[in-house]
Each structure stands twice: as C-alpha cells, then as structure tokens.
Design brief:
Order of helices and strands: HHHHHHH
Helix content: over 70%
Radius of gyration: 22 Å
Structural class: mainly alpha
Number of strands: 0
Largest sheet: none
Shape: elongated
Distance between the termini: 73 Å
Oligomer: single chain
C-alpha cells in the first residue's frame, strides 16, 4: 500500500473521529477528575484536550477555513460544558476558558502565518479591502466587488 495524501487524510479523519468520541466520553462520562491522578489542574487538562481536538479538526478538514474550524471548536467547548451540566457534572467557566486557550494555541500559528502572507501580498490594503477582494467571501446578491466599487468611484464626477 502506497502512502498518498488521500490515504493520510483518511487516517487523520479516522483519528479525529476517534479523538472526538474519546473526548465526549471523557467530558460526559461518570469520571471525576481527581480519580485520574493527573499532575496538573482541570483547566489545563481542558486546554490540552481542546488543543488536540482543534489540531485533529484542522488536519482532517483541509478544505475548511481555519478560522471557521476554530469557531466550531469554541462552540463545541461551550456545548461540552452544557452537556456536562446535563449529565450531573459541574459546568464551569474556568473549564470553558481552558478549552478556549487550547483552541487559541492551536489556531495562533495559522493566524500568524496568514498575517505574514497578507503583509507580503497586500501591504498597503486595509483588511476590509482584502476581504472585499476575496473570491471566497460571500456577498449579498447584487453586491459589487472591490474592483467594481473602485471603478465606480473613478467614474463618478466629484461633487461641487
């Protein structure tokens, strides 16, 4: 069997699904954190868990935008706290904060790389102009692209 990008992505998806199931079991199961005997606080464990979950999501969903994957991971973090309260465990803002730190730690290198790329490719454009010119950005029906807006500004005579 040859190792191809497609086979590697399949393996990453299986690993990501397995990690997700394990995370659900760990967060919603009848386990007490004290029984695990981990040498660090519960909040750190949440950060490490969601760092891994976010990396698994980012690696197994190559066509998804990284910021959307990070937002989904934050949403999952909030939902996991709600689920914990439903199953009789404590819902904690500190745990949610740890989850968010884990997601941010996984997303930060991607955001920094993207910022470096934008500073090389579009050093003098505003972020709004870059977003308007992005082909992937959805626009309202009938909305004009940045190029069309710039052309319209040049075509209109100045007001007296």
């Amino acid at each position: 069997m040859r190792l191809t990008p497609h086979r590697l992505m399949q393996a990453l998806r299986v690993g990501g699904i397995s990690a997700g199931v394990a995370a659900v079991i760990a967060l919603a199961g009848p386990f007490k954190y004290e029984d695990l005997g981990l040498p660090f606080p519960d909040t750190v464990a949440h950060a490490v868990l969601f760092y891994g979950v976010t990396l698994a999501m980012l690696s197994s969903l190559p066509k998804a935008r990284a910021n959307e994957v990070a937002m989904i991971a934050i949403l999952l973090a909030g939902m996991s706290e709600v689920v914990q309260s439903v199953f009789g465990r404590s819902m904690s803002f500190h745990d949610f904060a740890g989850d968010s730190v884990g997601v941010a730690a996984a997303y930060a290198p991607i955001a920094i790389t993207r910022l470096r790329e934008l500073s090389r490719l579009h050093p003098h454009q505003t972020f709004a102009e870059i977003r308007a010119a992005d082909r992937r950005t959805s626009r309202a029906i009938g909305a004009r692209t940045a190029t069309e807006q710039a052309a319209a500004k040049l075509a209109t005579p100045p007001a007296p």
